[in-house]
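User: Fold this one for me? It's Rpr2-domain-containing protein.
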Amino acid sequence: MTSMDSVGLRSKFLQEAAHLLAVSSPAASAFLGSARDRLFEDTEQGIPAKDWDALRRETCGACGNRMIPGWSCKITTRTLSGVVVKKKPAIPNKSTRPEKNIVLDCLRCRRKTIQSLQPRPSRHIRKSKSRVEAKSTLDLVQPTKEEENKVLKSANANSKQRKKARKGGLQAMLEKNKTNSSQGGLGLDLMDFAM
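Assistant: Here's what I get for Rpr2-domain-containing protein.
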């Protein structure tokens, strides 16, 4: 077994043990979390930035506390719109969005961990030639006012027919209930015997 495998196994063990003890014994969980951080520092293992951010989201960098939102940490988002960044924009026509950050506030040691949120990619709607051509042909063939009036009248007639059918259905149900209740003998219901 190589040293990198043993470090990975130890790290995984410490992570799972800290996770299991997070609620029942927060102090022991924090100790195991800080031991895991020390393990990464001692071995000088090159952790990718994505994994490092994930590690900071799950354990506090100062005390090793397990970051459970609402239980051991508080999460807020903040937008940095007033900060002036002195970078040359790669694309000058691209609209600049304010940078959003997530702030993890450890409730054990009050350390604030700030991580930036990745912006969503913007959606671009492309118009194909067929859509543009279809739009131009639709503009040429416009319905006359008589056709529009026919459509409106038929829509009104359909809604009136639906209303009449609904009303007839409700009246039929009421009449059916009346006939059933008159045939029922004593006219008692289950709710009459409820206490």
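One thing worth pointing out: The first strand starts at residue 73 and ends at 80.
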